[in-house]
């Protein structure tokens, strides 16, 4: 696994790699598949959040956070796409308030959690099947990476939770100073992977992940609960890892299992 700088990760001529296309099996450049991190590979860990709140003397059961989560995510969904950003504070404020945290405690707790986020990232629960899919793609010959808008310590986080080795590269906007949807971060990822052809990006945000990928000449899989069908053959939707696998097979990346 590499983060920076670019490394020599895959040599098609040396490997004899073949990938399926419509004309049969021909030696070609290994395909690139990238994953967003939050809400695609990892999710908010409510058990970890409850432990962090306990450090500040606030007792909240993970079950209470879970009960409050749907409304918090609805608030997040209302805010995230129009701005193209990540309304972290709005999500956390709604979540804590909905879980019964006293109103006067919520703002300082949100501030503290935000300050701690680079050191103790709350997004550390694996989304079912996605890391396994990344490993499967890598084993089949794809160049697989994480491409995420994050705080600059994403590689350390993924190593901490034991999944960094599933990815040949981890590209973190906080480390390189470029954020999706800027096409430069997609171009940078290709350079890191030693690739020349546009890839396929999987992510949950329309402006950052899907529009960003399309603007860079890539295809995109819009992932998660907010994804809805669009009339663009370059874009597919997926609700879970099995859906992603089906899309990739349909795009002739690899044969269906």
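Q: What amino acid sequence fits the structure above?
A:
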């Amino acid at each position: 696994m590499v983060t920076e700088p670019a490394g020599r990760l895959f040599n098609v001529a040396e490997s004899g790699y073949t990938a399926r296309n419509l004309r049969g099996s021909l030696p070609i450049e290994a395909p690139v598949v990238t994953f967003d991190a939050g809400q695609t590979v990892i999710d908010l860990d409510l058990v970890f959040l409850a432990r962090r709140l306990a450090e500040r003397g606030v007792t909240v059961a993970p079950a209470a956070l879970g009960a409050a989560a749907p409304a918090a995510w609805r608030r997040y969904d209302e805010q995230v796409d129009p701005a193209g950003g990540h309304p972290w504070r709005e999500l956390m404020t709604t979540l804590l308030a909905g879980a019964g945290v006293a109103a006067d405690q919520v703002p300082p707790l949100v501030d503290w959690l935000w300050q701690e986020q680079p050191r103790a990232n709350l997004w550390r629960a694996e989304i079912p099947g996605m890391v396994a899919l990344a490993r499967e793609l890598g084993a089949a010959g794809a160049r697989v990476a994480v491409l995420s808008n994050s705080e600059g310590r994403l590689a350390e986080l993924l190593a901490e939770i034991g999944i960094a080795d599933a990815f040949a590269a981890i590209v973190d906007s906080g480390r390189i100073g470029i954020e999706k949807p800027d096409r430069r971060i997609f171009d940078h990822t290709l350079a890191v992977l030693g690739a020349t052809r546009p890839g396929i990006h999987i992510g949950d945000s329309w402006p950052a992940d899907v529009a960003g990928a399309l603007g860079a000449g890539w295809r995109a899989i819009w992932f998660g609960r907010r994804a809805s069908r669009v009339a663009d053959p370059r874009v597919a939707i997926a609700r879970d890892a099995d859906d992603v696998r089906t899309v990739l097979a349909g795009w002739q990346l690899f044969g269906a299992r």
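Q: And what stands out in the fold?
A: The chain is about 45% helix and 15% strand.
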